[in-house]
Amino acid sequence: MSGQEKRVEREPVPGGRASFRFADGEEREGTVLEVTEERSLAFSWARPGEAQSVVEFTLEPASGGTRLVVVERGPALIAAVARPEWVSRLHAFAAALALVAA
Q1: Which of 21, 30, 56, 63 is the most exposed place for a label (fewest CB within 10 A)?
Q2: C-alpha angle 87/94/96, rounded to 5°?
Q3: Are strands 7-10 and 17-21 parallel, antiparallel or unpaired?
């Protein structure tokens, strides 16, 4: 579905609606859970027919600027990470971290 643009619509208040459409045509619907101005945003979202996950964006002071921390939690993510391709990716990531820590 090329040629489509990304679109996000949201009501930035707890309980507000959140709607996402990606360039590949994927759509997700959700609800704003928490908003702390200039600090954090949390919302639930899901693809049609799938379990919801919760996404949290948090801004943290960092040396020379600001760090954006993004965390997504949900039952569908656990199943996705258990797939064989993710297992090999996580092993590669762990190996890379071990090299950095050495």
Answers
A1: 63
A2: 125
A3: antiparallel
Report whether 72 contacts 53 (CB < 8 A): yes
Average pLDDT, rounded, for the chain: 81
3-state secondary structure string across 14-35: CCCEEEEECCCCCEEEEEEEEE
Question: Nearest Cα to 51, choosing from 18, 81, 29?
Answer: 29
Which among 35, 32, 6, 4 has a CA at the least distance from the CA of 20? 6
* pTM of the shown model: 0.67
At 1 the three-state DSSP class reads coil
Query: For residue range 8-52, what is the model confidence (pLDDT) as tens digits?
Result: 888 889 999 999 888 888 899 999 999 999 999 999 999 888 889
What stretches of 18-83 show up as alpha helix (H) in DSSP?
75-81
